[in-house]
Description:
- By secondary structure, the protein is mainly alpha-helical.
- The protein is globular.
- It has helices at residues 2-37, 41-44, 46-57, 59-69, 71-91, 95-123, 127-159, 163-166, 168-182, 197-220, 224-247, 261-291, 296-324, 327-351, 354-381, 389-420, 425-462.
- Helix 12 runs parallel beside helix 14 (327-351), helix 13 (296-324) crosses helix 15 (354-381) and helix 14 packs antiparallel against helix 17.
- The chain crosses the membrane at residues 7-33, 45-62, 74-93, 99-121, 133-155, 161-183, 195-214, 220-242, 269-288, 300-318, 330-347, 353-379, 400-421, 427-447.
Amino acid sequence: MKNKNSIILFIACSAVFLEALDLAIMNLALPLIQKHFHLKEEQSQWLQTIYVLLYGGFLIIGGKLADIWGRKKVFMSGALLFLITSIGAGKANSFEFLFFFRAIQGLGAALLMPSAMAIITNTFVTEAARSKALGIFSSFAAIGSGCGLSLGGIIASSLGWQWIFFINVPIISMSLILAFIILESDTQTTDTIPPDFLSGIILSFCIVLLSYFIHAIPTLIYKPIQVIVLLSLITLSLVYFIKRSRHHKNPLINFALLKGRNVQIGNKAIFLLGSFFLSYLLVLSFYLQEILGFSAAKAGLLLFPFSVGSALISRFLLPCLIKRFKIIRIARLGMSLMFFGALLLIVSMHYHLFVYLVFSIACVTGAGMAISIPSLTVMALNQIPVDHQGVASGVNTTSYFFGSGIGLSLISLIMQLNTIFPSTKKQLIASMTLLLLLAALAVLYLLKKDFAQDRETDRLRKV
Length: 463
């Protein structure tokens, strides 16, 4: 039984490893894809935007489907979809086909990840065993991200950008075979009232439209009718989603669970963190390769030690901090490091100081992310009842990926404005980094505001 549980854990961990690998590996390959298809920067980054938006948008639906259809069935469906789209993306001979397969790949990840998490929580029933398994699961995410940032550059430079997709094939094939043999078919639930899947689709549609609108602002300046139509569609779909969710008997998202102050602060902060981090990686990748002249392989090797450091901080330092300090203070520390890292990137670009660049990467991809994501997640989930933790966790993760999509869209907007108001590439990247600073400042404001309210509450209690 113990060996079987270890194999099941390996199957689930392979999914999160693959998801983290695939998200990180694209950042260093984007400049190569851009050159191959003769694209502009704002066009190539749509490969990341559409992936994170569809992944985040359908994540909660994926979790609900795992409960209804069974964890094994949904896991294998997601893995098979991920496998097919990886092959299709690697074989794509046009950007349109590559974009299509990348978008569907996001849907595969949305089925794969929540079912993998559900497999772990249902296999390891005792609290100690489950905590240990989830810790291993999280560490595989950090390892996958580190491998994506380092090996991705080497693979893309030596074998071609197509292999950042082909590398998924042996990993996901092995997971599929093991899942088919090892995982047992689980009991399907039979809710008398089916979940409101339509709301999830409407929300995803709304966010994708908003991202497109941000992308298209420079071309829409002289097209007021299109602007009115797009804004009307975005507003109406969002209003309809909220109204439908509040009145449906089995809503996809129960807004009553999200009324707690810390829950709202945590989810808003994780949204802004998502907009900050993936945008930072995109800026950093273009800076290293387009301005400093690094190859994708050299850029990846530069990032690798900090990704490993992030995994070590998550595993050893963070638990010690949680025991000694309030979670909000830990979150403030993490976001302060993110802000400082973005500031150092601007200084590095302006004064050509490589050591500042190294410290920037250390602050953001090393310590900042390792501290920020877990602490903000705990803030968002602490006040949620145990039987609703799954849905709340899905909302939290969805907030992160929606933020990532919006942040990447804003970066794309600045890239396009640069073509209208020409400037050097260094000024372009500096302007993008300023946008990242604003995101970091916004998160710090949220956390500072909450911290001040906590101090006021403590003062009133003493009175």
